Amino acid sequence: LQAYQEHDRKVWVADSFDGVPVPELEEDKEFDISKKVFPGLAVGLEEVKNNFDKYDLLKENVEFLPGLFSSTLPNAPINEIAVLRLDGDLYESTMDSLNALYDRVVSGGFVIVDDYGVLPPCKKAVDEFREKRNISNSYQWIDWSGIYWRK
Hints:
Oligomer: single chain
Order of helices and strands: EHEHEHEHEE
Helix content: 25-40%
């Protein structure tokens, strides 16, 4: 945004800032990557802000939404999204994110999903969502795990 002198857009950072929650849905049961199993995934809000600041990215246009996606995203004050980047890992969090935010992605905007190729619950959520919504835009592989498509 700085490179293109964009001053009217925001960067929203949504995360629990307390690690991945313990799986509750059947689709996620075999993929417990919660804090008790992988404590390294629990990066607190202050550490994230410090990392943004370290690279001079902690600007007034960066907003943080701490909490579970199911609680924060449906009522988030976000109207239009140009780039929706998802790193929800599991079925439930990926589906919560897509259900809450996909309709806010503008035509021509991009949806990026980090874990599609490595976490079957994430892939299942994306595939089901795309099928339910009749999304026919093909997706492209970014690398061995991530995909994107243009809306």
